[in-house]
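Blinded run. Sample ID left blank on purpose so nobody reads anything into the name before looking at the predicted structure. Input follows.
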Amino acid sequence: MIRQSLVKKIFVLSLTFLVPAVVGRAADTKSSTAKLSSDDTNFIKEAAQGGLMEVQLGKLAQEKAADEKVKQVGKRMEQDHSKANDELKKIASA
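Blinded prediction complete.
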């Protein structure tokens, strides 16, 4: 029961943060001189915080889970969200 709950939470959270990756791709098509609105800036900040949380949850799943599949999901989550965080950093610095 606990494992299913953890897997469901990890899955829901990982879906929640697919949006930053899509935003990153969309931002690449815009001019680098475009200014971000305060809503966009807030979104980036919240996405970054969420992305960092996802990486930590992935690490936690790898360390604490008894089921190998849950550990694999945690590893994939850590890798995917680390990559998304790096893309978000590029956008933010531009």
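Unblinding after everyone has recorded impressions. The mean pLDDT is 77.
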